[in-house]
Write a structure and sequence with these properties.
It is a single chain. By secondary structure, this protein is α/β, with parallel strands linked by helices. The chain folds into 3 domains: about 60 residues, no CATH class; about 260 residues, Type I PLP-dependent aspartate aminotransferase-like (Major domain) (Aspartate Aminotransferase, domain 2, 3-Layer(aba) Sandwich), CATH 3.40.640; about 120 residues, Alpha-Beta Complex (Aspartate Aminotransferase, domain 1), CATH 3.90.1150.10. About 35% of the residues lie in helices and about 10% in strands. Strands 1-7-6-5-4-2-3 form a 7-stranded mixed sheet, with helices on both faces. Strands 10-12-11 form a 3-stranded antiparallel sheet, covered by helices on one side. α5 runs parallel beside α11. The protein starts with about 30 loop residues before the first helix and ends in an 11-residue tail after the last helix.
């Protein structure tokens, strides 16, 4: 489709056209000056386009057709768990008792909503094996920081101010070392071994009396389960540190394994991943954090509690790290996650992991002869390929990702994890049909053949999208972040 089929709305502007109708002001305009500080009163009319409602609708409808989402196509974005978002979740989240309440309402007037949150906390405690869960953190990285701040508070409460290091595997999510740094720790890398797992000898080398915690994703970002997790937990605990679980990959182990049973002390979950909250636009996310009993006093306040069938917020928590988000988390995502969990049930959640693992292994085995497979053992919910064979033919992993757009697929995560050359991390999730998996695999095989026979086809991709390949260096260094009015 040609770019001219999507003209920018600003170029449609004609003086006098209106696409909205606002109610009359219910206060005299002469009172505005007494209500608002003059710094907040606009002196000149904003330079906005003047268009009709029909033009606005066509503009945004056209823009929506440019977007790729899980409702419109396959989205194998590794480590992000872009599974289908059931529409029942949306219906429940829009019930007036959930959507029309306000955070400032008195707790006695929203007991139903608080009851849902309390039940969700209890369910997540059971799923993770933790003693207490808070729903307050807004997303995964926020949950990481919250968990690390609790670990820091625990050590300091015990007079242990010298625990300044957080150990992070070289295959970890990029947010892990970033969260450790923001929480005031020094991130220390532990290497992976030849099988893609944490090297126990290197772990023993980096652990010392300064170790505050080990941050670990299990299965890790290579899609591999850490076989020696109990031994790793023992190493950290014997050194006086805590074990932190990055829950981004929980979709692989639901109903089969619990972080608490592996020896983890802190867990964060991504409700917008494993439990089908929608992604996109920077949120909303939800990153609940669970802790063992020893760390419970440090949870953010207020903490939702129950007494005599009444739900309330416990504000008096002297050892709490304090509030980490206005109000109490992203309530709408909590409702969606709760609906999903109750709909699936315990056996349904277990099957989620079964199908996610089967789908990933099926795709991996079909592609292992066309692309390099750095780790050949069975994977869990995702797997990592390498485009190093294609790179020798002049086709980079970035080119492969661009070419996939021509087939109508969102590319997998590329160049991550960084300990795999030309990495492509593929996560099909459990919600995709075999026909979809086969079609994606066939596209990947065709691209591999093109790299051998007509590499320029891949190098110049995409060919069928509204916007062709852009100058990514200029886009990164000199981004245009706002509309620049054409003065001609």
């Amino acid at each position: 489709m040609a770019e001219q089929d999507f003209p920018l709305i600003f170029e449609h502007s004609q003086s006098g056209r209106t696409g909205y109708s606002l109610p009359e002001m219910d206060i005299p305009t002469t009172d505005v000056d007494t209500i608002l500080d003059e710094r907040y009163i606009r002196q000149n009319e904003p330079d906005l386009p003047e268009v009709s409602e029909l033009q606005i609708m066509r503009h945004y409808t056209a823009l929506s057709k440019r977007n790729h989402g899980v409702d419109s196509g396959f989205y194998p974005l590794g480590s992000c768990t872009m599974k289908y978002n059931p529409k029942m979740n949306e219906d429940v989240a829009r019930l007036p008792g959930f959507s029309h309440i306000h955070p400032y309402q008195a707790p006695e007037t929203i007991q139903g909503a608080l009851g849902l949150m309390y039940d969700l906390q209890t369910i997540l405690e059971e799923i993770t094996g933790m003693d207490t869960v808070t729903l307050q953190p807004a997303a995964g990285a926020h949950g990481e920081w919250t968990g690390l701040m609790m670990i820091r508070a625990f050590h300091e409460a015990n007079g242990d101010y010298n625990r300044t290091k957080v150990i992070v595997p070289d295959s970890a999510h990029g947010t892990n070392p970033a969260s450790a740094t923001v929480a005031g720790f020094q991130a220390v890398t532990v290497k992976s071994n030849e099988r893609g797992l944490v090297d126990l000898e290197d772990l023993k080398r980096v652990v010392d009396k300064d170790t505050a915690a080990l941050m670990l994703t299990n299965p890790n970002t290579l899609g591999l389960f850490e076989e020696h997790i109990l031994e790793m937990a023992a190493i950290i605990h014997e050194a006086g540190g805590k074990l932190y679980y990055d829950g981004a990959n929980l979709n692989a182990i639901l109903g089969y394994a619990r972080p608490g049973d592996m020896g983890f002390d802190v867990v964060h979950l991504n409700l917008h991943k494993t439990f089908t909250g929608p992604h996109g636009g920077g949120g909303p996310g939800s990153g609940p954090v669970g802790v063992v009993k020893e760390l419970s006093p440090y949870l953010p306040k207020p903490l939702l509690k129950k007494e005599n069938e009444t739900f309330y917020f416990e504000e008096t928590r002297p050892q709490s790290i304090g509030r980490v988000k206005p109000y109490y988390g992203n309530f709408g995502i909590n409702v969606r996650a709760y609906t999903y969990i109750r709909t699936m049930g315990a056996e349904g959640l277990k099957r989620v992991s079964e199908y996610a693992v089967i789908n990933a292994n099926y795709m991996m085995r079909r592609l292992q002869d066309e692309y390099a497979l750095p780790f050949t053992q069975h994977c869990k919910h995702e797997f990592v390929l390498s485009g190093k064979y294609q790179k020798k033919m002049g086709v980079r992993t970035l080119d492969i990702a661009k070419r996939l757009l021509d087939f109508g697929y969102h590319p997998p995560t590329i160049y991550f994890p960084m300990n795999v050359e030309e990495a492509m991390m593929v996560e099909p999730t459990e919600t995709e049909a075999k026909e979809t998996l086969d079609a994606f695999v066939d596209a990947m095989i065709q691209i591999s053949n093109e790299a051998k026979e007509e590499p320029e086809t891949v190098q110049e991709a995409p060919h069928t999208t509204v916007v062709s390949r852009m100058d990514e260096t200029t886009a990164a260094r000199k981004p245009v972040l706002r509309y620049m009015k054409n003065e001609e």
